[in-house]
Design goal:
Elements (H helix, E strand, L loop, with lengths): L1 H12 L5 H6 L5 H10 L4 H25 L3 H17 L19 H7 L4 H16 L31 H16 L7 H12 L6 H6 L16 H17 L3 H9 L2 H10 L4 H24 L2 H9 L6 H20 L2 H11 L11 H7 L5 H16 L3 H17 L3 H7 L2 H6 L7 H15 L2 H4 L5
Length: 457
């Protein structure tokens, strides 16, 4: 795939574009024609020299072509020229914010390119737009130069409000989310979209836009232990995006709802490239105060202890591992297993953590379900009606069945709380696991207590 894209790029750069015709048609000006003749089909060294001398003027001309000429071949050609210039020296994107371009729409031409049904065009427009947005000057004329350990742009103290860019960034993020949902290209759309998001989310004011677009859950499928060098970069950028989102409180709930936390633990456990482990561990550290019990239930402490046996060159990673170990040990002392279970139920998102199928958990804690007039059980039954998540529904049916089996008055209590009707309503659910657990739960409701233990769960 990479070879075919490279071949396509070479073919595009060989094209002869009729610049004189465009000037005759008043699509470009005489100055534009002069600059295009000077730049067109020159070697990389000559083009680089020209951009160093007057890069803003050349970018202004390229924008004029993209704005006024709709022919696909020409659009591809100019986008490729720009993409090559920016990939060679990304800092050149700051030239789009030069005062000589103040009256130009520097975003519109690229946003329009995203609507074309042509991945070659979309990919280059995505990369260019990401760099232009990321290089937006801040107060005092400085450009962003990275992200600090707290997930903020390092020059954020001098930032100006970025809300004015929301009409630009919001549709761009929508496009990136659409690529994650339904890729235009089988192998390049997802890496390109995730790379762009990882860059954009360095700016804290763009993080709410991804949450609003319901895009956090789209990162989840790509947070897995990496396999192969190319996959390492994809996983790294996906986890980096999550780490940046952990600094935005509304995103934290979305991260948990998307079940990204156990995925982060799996990535850390894999002991892949240090940079991947680093962002996974730092993400877990940021989320621990809210979701520490979830992490402990998924075996965080054991993973952290094993990781600490390795030698890491990054001091932040070593410090984060130490902090996580101390927090996890303290948390284990404070929380009983039922406290963890209750917190999970009250969160509204259930997962197949070990306690759900642990017979000793149910035997030891069944009496605690009676606390506060069966509050935990009532919430569990409510989830059967209110949740749209298949896994939550399956686990809720299973747990209700466990309560019926282990509590001396389980059947009667469940029937009094109208659980039967809610479970039966899930027997026709499209997910087979929900159907299975609903059926088993109903069987436990109908059978006498001495037979329920024979049912397979």
């Amino acid at each position: 795939m990479a070879d075919s894209q490279e071949s396509m790029k070479e073919q595009v750069l060989k094209r002869e574009i009729p610049w004189e015709t465009y000037m005759t048609a008043k699509m470009i000006q005489g100055t534009d024609l002069m600059l295009l003749r000077r730049y067109d089909h020159r070697g990389p060294e000559v083009q680089s020299q020209l951009l160093n001398q007057d890069g803003a003027a050349y970018f202004k001309t390229f924008l004029a072509v993209l704005r006024n000429v709709s022919k696909e071949e020409t659009t591809e050609y100019v986008l490729t020229l720009l993409d090559e210039a920016l990939q060679a020296v990304p800092s050149r994107a700051a030239l789009f914010h030069d005062k000589t371009l103040a009256a130009d729409d520097i975003y519109g031409p690229f946003l329009r390119c995203l609507t074309r049904k042509n991945w070659f065009t979309q990919e280059r427009a995505t990369r260019i737009l990401t760099l232009i947005i990321s290089s937006r000057p801040r107060a005092g004329g400085s450009a962003p130069n990275g992200t600090s350990a707290n997930g903020a742009s390092t020059s954020s103290a001098a930032t100006v409000p970025f809300d004015s860019l929301d009409p630009i960034v919001s549709p761009f993020i929508d496009f990136l989310c659409a690529q994650l949902k339904s890729p235009s290209h089988p192998s390049r759309s997802v890496p390109t979209a995730i790379s762009a998001l990882a860059a954009l989310l360095r700016e804290r004011s763009y993080r709410p836009l991804l949450v609003k677009a319901d895009g956090v859950k789209l990162l989840a499928p790509h947070i897995v232990p990496p396999s192969g060098q190319q996959h390492v970069q994809l996983v790294y950028e996906a986890v980096l995006a999550v780490w940046l989102l952990t600094f935005h409180e509304p995103a934290q709930a979305a991260i948990r709802a998307a079940r990204i936390i156990p995925k982060l633990i799996d990535v850390a456990k894999s002991g892949a490239k240090e940079k991947v482990v680093r962002v996974a561990v730092l993400s877990l550290k940021n989320l621990f105060d809210k979701f520490g019990s979830d992490m402990i239930e998924h075996g965080l402490l054991k993973v952290v202890v094993i990781l600490q046996l390795q030698s890491w060159s990054d001091e932040d990673l070593s410090a984060a591992l130490q902090a996580l170990e101390e927090s996890a040990k303290s948390n284990i002392k404070i929380l009983s297993s039922f406290d963890q279970y209750k917190a999970e139920v009250l969160s509204g998102n259930l997962d197949w953590t070990p306690m759900h199928k642990d017979a000793s958990f149910w035997r030891e804690n069944i009496g605690k379900f009676e606390e506060n007039d069966f509050q935990t059980l009532r919430v569990l039954i409510t989830l059967l009606e209110s949740s749209n998540d298949s896994r939550t529904l399956a686990v809720a049916c299973h747990d209700l069945g466990q309560f019926i089996q282990y509590h001396p008055a389980g059947r009667g209590v469940a029937l009094d709380l109208k659980a039967k009707e809610k479970v039966m309503g899930r027997m026709t659910h499209p997910d087979p696991e929900v159907q299975k657990q609903a059926l088993l739960c109903i069987q436990k409701l109908l059978l006498s207590a001495k037979y329920t233990s024979y049912l397979q769960t």
